[in-house]
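Q&A FORM
Asked by: J.P.
Topic: structure of VWFD domain-containing protein

PROVIDED:
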Amino acid sequence: MTFDSRYPDKLGMGMLNVTKQINARKRGFTMLAPLWTDNDGRSGDVFYHIYDTTQPGSNTSDKARVKKADVIAHGGVSVTDVTWVMVITWSHMTPRMYYDTSIDRTNTFQLIIAYDPSRYQTYVMHIYLDMGWNIEYIDRRSMIGYVSLKSKEQKAEILAASLKTTGLRLDTRLGNTGVNGRYIFNVAPGRQEHNYAQKCRNWHANEMTRMSLVRYYLLSTLGCPCDLRLARRDGRWTFDWKQYFETNFKRRCIYERATSGQSTQECCYSPSGSLITTEDGRGGQMFFYHPHSSTLHHKYDVLPKHWCCYLTDNCELFYEVRPMDRCNGYTPLHKGWLYGDPHIRTLDGFEYTFNGLGEYTLIETTHREFTLQGRTAKVHDVKGQETDATVFSAFAARDRDSDTVHVEMTSSRRGLAIVVDNVNFTDWFTSAIATDSQDHVCVSVTKTNSTQIEVTFLSGFSLTIGVTAEQLDVTVGAPNTFKGFTKGLMGVFNDDPTDDLLPPGENAVPLSNRSSEKTIFKEFGERWRIKKIDSLFYYAPGESYATFARTTFTPRFLEDVLANMTPSQRQMAQRTCGNNKECIFDFAVTGK
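REPLIED BY: S.T.
REPLY: Here is the structure written out as tokens.
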């Protein structure tokens, strides 16, 4: 310990007698006695130091000592509620002896007073470091303990003279802590209720010391969608249904599924769908710990909001260190679709049909921060026979550092099979309820219903994959940060649909977006067929890359299908599809 003050009266309690101590309660005050006896004020020293973590000038050393006292006071379990500690040390004290002044044995001991304002409790610790006196050195009875006015109790032990040479060797005696020379007493047991305002202030003071971290983490969190409609369409967010059912506000709150750090942003909306921006406890907040870190999140994000906003009027303290977002800088995802007998809508909105058979690159960013691949299979007609048209049957995707997610149709073509990093999660998907989520390395997988999942990656890309009519459909969400950095069958993401048909290759030139299906197939689509070394797909026993590498396949093209349709077939197709060419093609090839 270090001390900043020397106590001028080195005699301290030693000049008071036992009778006064015993009658302390009658006199109206609490008495503390680490060692009640006579000492010689001509030798030794008495020091004291106060550590107060509620003061702005408190340093790391002070807080470490208060933390240590807190752990001791609460039986080894820190609850971070002790905020004020006073340490008094009697160093090398000699006994007061009227007949002998040559005694060279000394006592060194400490009294530690720790105050817990959240429970209105005061703990006293006696620490006997080096006790050299014998009982025969003193003229009166000695005592340790305390007399408390508030609790109307007295815990004092008279050190009997019959103990002779061991009576004052408290450093060798087993204390009530189970350790030699260590005693602890709760001299002010406090109240049953908690002081929530003090809890809020203590938490706030602690969080202010790491505001630089809070600001740093905020840089990596997304801005809140400006209304609930946008939030529902953005796969980067997930709904926190507990907030809806467990509060009186009936608000709808969301938070980021996956983040680049431990923190995330919460956004809350009123029943009308507007973003709540009032700092009264109803609005969202920055989560220092993601809800998936349930224990830390509850301790440092959830409980403090209750202390500061719901149980007291200290919301301004809470939002100072857990700021909310007010739709600052929010940008929605750009969407692309793959559906039907593969019809593709690129991230820039260009639509075309590609009926390749095999495994293809759909999206690949410049530095492979994100990759999405798709596998196609032949379509079955109404009689169950294979046709020359194809549909998507599987997707595989990953971020640079994430687990790989593989989703495919089941053998019945009516369900989904899920594999994450070569581990099968199909049973989880089948048994999970809607909105159940699985968190993996840098990717989150959420079941939205019995035939659909959402996959969200740390990069911000999101996939909504579903099975309908014996085919897989996917909606791709791409963040603005990847504009100008994508290629593949989903096109070049740059708000210019005219260059989306860009084949691979350093000096490649995009095809005209008026190219025929045959040209798109041969000069664009087939060139995005993946190589074995690049495959992200999971292959079941008996399967391999070669199983799906059908390089000799030639599909039926729309222009050929339309030319070969009979008038009655065309009439029936138009009755079902109107003038939608993609629908007419699907109807003509599959009969459904």
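FOLLOW-UP: Residues 8-26, 158-166 have pLDDT under 50 and may be disordered.
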